[in-house]
Each structure stands twice: as structure tokens, then as C-alpha cells.
Amino acid sequence: MAVDKSLISGNTSMLLLKLLSEKDMYGYEMIETLEAKSNHVFELKAGTLYPLLHTMEAGNLLTSYEREAAGKTRKYYKITKEGQKTLGRKQKEWDEYTKAVGQVMGGVNFGNA
To answer: Nearest-5° angle of CA 96, CA 101, CA 102?
Structure first.
């Protein structure tokens, strides 16, 4: 079953921050990792990813640097301390939201809160 894109778009930055809290990544690596970890539910396009990364970098949630890998220079992204704080806040909001949805949907608790 396909997931409504509006459910995904509001949480993409949280998912990217989570990936980057695990390790620094370049753009295409984020796309592949997100797709693999979500069992193909999250399939970001580069045209969606890069503007979001630039906005997050401008908001001091990420920094970027270049590094050579496999003979190519790639732009890697790294979560900042502000990004870590934002991720923690977004995770709490997500837990509260999923708990509330679960309660409305019949007492199922999807969150950790």
C-alpha cells in the first residue's frame, strides 16, 4: 500500500537528522539509506533532498564538507549540536503524535512515550 506523501513530507527533516546522527553522509547515500531502512516507503528524489539539506544547513542544523571517496569529491553533511537538539525535540513530538493517533484508532500505542 502506498503511503500518502503528505504524511512523509512533514517528517522528512526529522528522518534526515536521524540518519545524520548515526554518521556523516552524502546526498545520494541518504536517499539510498532512507529507502532501504524504510522498506522503500521513503523514496526521496534529489530535487527534494538538496533544497531541504540547504535549508537545514542555513538553519544551523547541519554543516557540510567535501571529501574524496572512490575517486570522486563528495559533499558530506554532518549534524550540528543544534541539529541534535532539534532531533530530540522532533522525536518527542513524534512519540506524542503517534501515541495520540494510536489511542484514537482503538488503543493501539505506536509511540514510545
So the answer is: 95
Q: What nine digits make up the cell of 110?
A: 505506536
Name the pTM for this structure.
0.82
Q: Give SS3 for 74.
A: strand
Q: Kindly report, residue by residue over 43-82, the tens digit of the pLDDT.
A: 889 999 999 999 999 999 999 999 998 889 999 999 999 9
Q: Is 97 helix (H, G, I), strand (E, B) or coil?
A: helix
Rounded Cα gap, residues 78 and 53, in angstroms: 11
- Any long-range contacts for 86-89 (C-beta under 8 Å, 24+ apart)? 86/17, 86/61, 87/14, 87/17, 87/18, 87/21
Cβ within 8 Å of residue 86, ≥6 positions away? 17, 61
Given pLDDT bands bounded at 50, 70 and 90, which one contains residue 9? low
Q: Are 66 and 72 in contact (CB under 8 A)?
A: no
- Return the C-alpha cell found at 80: 550540528
